[in-house]
Amino acid sequence: FDKVIGNEETEIMLKLKKGYYLCKLEEYERAIEVFESIASQSFSEKKYAYFLIAQSNRKYAYKLGSIYFSKEYINKEKNQLWYDYFSNHSTQLLESLPLQEQEKYKSMFDFGNNEIYKLSSEVYLLAQKLIDDTGKNTVYFGESTFDKISRKIIEIERYAKENYLIDDSFKEHHDIIRNSITSLLIRYTSKNFKRVREGFFDGLSMPVSNETFSDLHFHFMVNYLKKDDITSIHQINSFTEIEFENIDHIDEYILRFIRPVTDDFFLSKYPRLLRAIGPKISILLILLRFIDIKESTLIILLNELFKKESFYFDISYIVLLIDKQKSIFNKVSLNVQKVLARKLCKFIDEDIYCLESGTKLNMNTRYGYPYYHLIDYIEEPSTLSEYGFRDKVESLFELVDQSCINRVLHLADKTDIELKQKINNRLIMLANEENVFELVLNMCTYEYDCSRLNKLFIDHLRVYIASERTRKLQENTSPKDVRYSKLLQATRYYLGGALQNISLTEFTGLNDQIDFMIDPEQFNYSLFQVEWIFSSSKHELESLANLNNVSKSIKQKIINSLMTNNYNSHDELRLYEILNKYFSR
To answer: Total structural domains in the chain?
Structure first.
């Protein structure tokens, strides 16, 4: 990019490439100047195809620039006048060409859009057919619909990029490829889909399609899918892996993909690139949860992404990616832990700075995930001590108030007994009737001694329940407004064994779910609803599984529910997981 853009070539094709690259870097005003120059040069040299492409690209570049950076346009009035004229007088521009050229290009958009429109129409119909065929065990001989779609979207992409057509940045182009690659993913991940392999029919030697993904498919997924696309497909067809041919090419692609954001000099010249590439980084991270890449690639990826404080992606995607590594190998590699420890300590420093300066660190929206949960993936103490972790946590604790104490408790879990005791004593001093509920639940989660607060905790619940009895429930809220939600939250901790020396038995009789959570052994299981355990924690499920009669009752309820209810694949998988892991005895 930098080489092409810095080149002062006069050859039209190279100038066209330069303008195209400037658009990809979101340097739209510079791109418009290049296309304006090409239009003038190509017309005088009678290269009318380039003239039309340049004029079309100039229009699209202005449209994109006005959408994203309208206030930054120096020559906005001039470009706006030209854009209005171009949009309304394309016929006059065409008539400025010689007659034989007018016949060749009947519309300003014939050169670029007709071919893409034709390909797009074909691939749209193929995508619909592929979705319809999914689950029908359709056998393809020769080129399958899956392969045809793959070929067509490559043709569309090549046509746009090799001719340097800026309209590939627009919604229509994006939607066609996005819908097509989505149809391929649905087909691939459908639990009803059975791959047709060669030799399916004895005695037939006709070629049978082997429907697999390549690094080109990966390119389309990263550049055209949205976060919700993958989430929706995963909810419909729960899957754990996406296989690609030549996985080494995926590793190479990832390193090439992030290269621009690792080059500070390049970014300083083209700062808008971060805005353009950020959402694609999020898609990349989501996809990598389902792809096995080299650890060396993962480390480079994490190192480079964590360097960019202003990036447009959520840290939650990185956490989920690391969580996958932990689930496969039952550990996180030491090298990855070192990367996480360094970044975690930088987050703590930023947190301390914000608290000292009176500004607010919004951990849930700015980073998309509470930063302190990175500690969950760091097992080796030396990786933390290297960055002064213990002292940072103590400094943070001295600054926070009770409303945000949970992050200190979570972090302090990896420090020494002396600091934890100091925190424990301070928390007890902070307790009052208003904050005791959250304080006790936070403390018991991290095994702090909150026994001195038990009476205050029970008194708080009594007052809360008295007010809940007469409270009018709000309608049409999300999540749904339910009575006694705070007590239900406490019963989860109670069932999981976290609330020590506290009895909640006086609160039975309010509703069936609360009765079940407080005393599962005495519960009437004809009233049990399987949905109650969908969101149960490991500790809650283990407590239920250790009660023999309770375990048998829940097991039968889950089996009956699976046989009689039509769950989506995500919920069905969750129930099978609970059944097999906790109630299979």
So the answer is: 4
